Amino acid sequence: MDAAQFFGILGITGSLIMCTSSLPQLIKTYRTKCVNGLSATYLAILMVGMTLILSYALYKKDLVFIFGNVLSLFLTGILVVLYWRYR
Q1: Residue 24 and residue 2: Cα distance in Å, rounded?
Q2: Rg of the chain in Å (alpha carbons)
Q3: How far apart are CA 64 and CA 56, in angstroms?
Q4: pLDDT at site 4
Q5: How confident is the model at residue 1 (pLDDT cuts 50, 70, 90)?
Q6: Which long-range contacts (CB under 8 A, 24 or more apart) does 10-19 make?
Q7: Residue 11 CB contacts under 8 Å (≥ 6 apart), including other chains
Q8: CB atoms < 10 A from the CB of 69, how many?
Q9: d(CA 77, CA 19)
């Protein structure tokens, strides 16, 4: 395995870990139907930041960042929908 493959695997693994970090909050929010303590400002800033990073990744054609940010945006988008539904 050369360095490019190794760092590619590291990048994919890191992206998957970052993406799955929102799952516990999604599951808790869905099960409890409670968004107390969840900040709409945080979610909005996070979505803007992820969108900007995704734009950069698309420009650079970096598949690891594209994959990670698309998945993160999707999961965070679900959380935003739950926030507005249960507030």
Answers
A1: 35
A2: 15
A3: 12
A4: 87
A5: confident
A6: 11/64, 11/65, 12/64, 12/67, 14/68, 15/64, 15/65, 15/67, 15/68, 15/71, 16/68, 18/68, 18/72, 19/68, 19/71, 19/72, 19/75
A7: 64, 65
A8: 24
A9: 12
pTM of this structure: 0.86
pLDDT in tens, 18-77: 888 999 999 999 999 999 989 999 999 999 999 999 999 999 999 888 999 999 999 999
Within 8 A by CB and 6+ apart from 51, the residues are: 73
Rounded-to-integer distance, Cα 72 and Cα 50, Å? 8
Distance, in Å, from the CA atom of 63 to the CA atom of 77, rounded to the nearest integer, reads 21
Domains assigned to the chain = 3-86 (1.20.1280.290)
pLDDT range class, residue 82, cuts 50, 70, 90: very high
